[in-house]
Specification:
CATH topology of the largest domain: Beta-galactosidase, Chain A, domain 5
CATH class of the largest domain: Mainly Beta
Helix content: under 10%
Number of strands: 32
CATH architecture of the largest domain: Distorted Sandwich
Distance between the termini: 33 Å
Number of domains: 2
Length: 443
């Protein structure tokens, strides 16, 4: 995100220098149109449209290319928040609404909800800047403590117009179906966490999702509603959909309770999606959130190019989940260790999500002194031979190298490379002292 738009042509694991006075790229999906009347508010962009009841602040319908008649059922609006406090159901009612002044890439409607005892939750509706998805941001302020346990937690019900036949969720390095057909017991203390008597709560059909849950109309090849989240992993299944748990009080925390919270959800109605596509949508929405964005101001000087990326993975069903320099001295002491013969080994972790074999071409900038597929401890399993490759992005004259190898279905592959462009550059102590002295004189 940028003050005036979204910069999209940023290479993978890389950067792009942006002049704030330059014109930012036009949004790939177009600009958001905002419409208002006495009863309804609308966000529209191409075939994607969100309608919000103005009085209640609840989403009445979401239309998309794959769901032209809408994905929400009649009488099942989206966005209601409730929790249990003092053994009574407490709902949050809209007391105020506002909006951005103009339509555009950051168009949004904001509703202030209030509960009892001064609880306030700000709910912001917008659209994902990268995908056709409703973007919901929730900010809780002075939220009164709910009754303990997951049954009393603050939650948001997500109930499409169809009864989900299957639920898919993600977990570390994979996706799979989750049934969530059984209740599960959870134990709590009644006082001191270590010495007090304990009680059991019967948690209704719980399940977790690392970053998304997909509610499917028929099966994995059919239409559905992909729900991406930013870290609120706890869900409960019900007869009509799921309930996302946003905030709770846990007796294991004794007297500790945070009365503020932030949460984000993206709801993307879709047609057929592969597991890799689901993971990519979840990763891109989360990494594109303003809460996780940072940027540095460039002061000029130096000889770095204006744009540069660190790698490119050429395989439709493989994603890179980690890339870092391995500075562990102990790794070089292990038997058959890649680090033993490398100056500054870099670790790249690739995951095949679709359950299919993959022929992978991994491109990296600059010469590669050595490369290998390794186990998780860095032991060499297979040596890889780098070959010269054209630059996929950045300066065309910059040399790149390519590694080619195969991956098995669902494989988590660890590739280690001695990347010459990524080697540690030690500071000159004399120059460092002079720079420190000059900086302190200026102060």
């Amino acid at each position: 995100m940028h003050d005036h738009g979204v910069v999209r042509s940023v290479p993978a694991f890389g950067y792009r220098v942006v002049d704030p006075y330059d014109e930012i790229e036009e949004p790939r999906l177009g600009r958001i149109e905002m419409r208002e009347d006495d009863a309804e508010l609308t966000l529209a962009r191409g075939n994607f449209e969100v309608r919000i009841d103005r009085k209640s602040g609840l989403v009445s319908q979401i239309f998309s290319r794959d769901w032209p008649d809408g994905i929400l059922g009649a009488g099942k609006p989206l966005g209601g928040l409730d929790m249990r406090r003092n053994r009574a159901l407490e709902r949050f009612e809209t007391v105020n609404e506002s909006s951005t002044e103009n339509s555009g890439e950051f168009a949004e409607f904001v509703f202030l909800r209030e509960g009892r005892a001064g609880s306030r939750i700000r709910v912001t509706y917008s659209m994902s800047m990268l995908h056709d998805a409703l973007w919901i941001r929730l900010q809780g302020e002075n939220v009164a403590r709910p009754d303990p346990g997951l049954a009393s937690a603050l939650g948001l019900a997500i109930r499409p117009g169809f009864k989900p036949t299957k639920l898919l969720h993600d977990h570390p390095y994979g996706t799979s179906e989750v049934e969530a057909e059984r209740n599960r017991p959870r134990k709590y203390p009644t006082g001191d966490a270590w010495s007090s008597p304990q009680v059991l709560e019967d948690v209704v059909r719980p399940f977790t999702a690392a970053s998304f849950v997909d509610l499917l109309e028929t099966d994995a090849s059919g239409r559905g509603l992909l729900v991406v989240h930013d870290g609120c992993q706890q869900f409960q299944r019900d007869a009509h959909g799921v309930r996302a748990l946003l905030h709770s009080y846990d007796l294991w925390d004794e007297d500790h309770y945070d009365n503020v919270f932030d949460a984000e959800l993206w709801l993307a109605p879709h047609g057929t999606l592969s597991p890799t596509e689901r993971m990519r949508i979840a990763m891109e929405n989360n990494l594109g959130s303003p809460r996780f964005e940072s940027f540095a101001s460039a002061l000029g000087g130096g000889d770095l190019p204006n744009t540069l990326g660190a790698l490119e993975v050429d395989a439709p069903n493989v994603l890179c989940t980690a890339f870092h320099r391995d500075r562990s001295a102990a790794a070089a002491l292990l038997e058959n260790s890649f680090a033993a013969g490398a100056l500054d080994p870099h670790v790249i972790r690739l995951v095949e999500f679709d359950g299919k074999p993959a022929e992978v071409t991994l491109r990296l900038p600059g010469p590669i002194a050595s490369a290998a597929r390794t186990d998780l401890l860095g032991g060499v399993l297979e040596r890889l031979t780098p070959r010269a490759a054209p630059a996929p992005f950045g300066p065309a004259q910059l040399p790149w190298s390519a590694l080619r190898f195969s991956m098995r279905p669902h494989e988590i592959a660890t590739i280690q490379v001695d990347l010459e462009f990524g080697r540690h550059q030690p500071l000159d102590p004399a120059k460092a002292r002079l720079a420190w002295a000059a900086a302190n004189r200026r102060r």
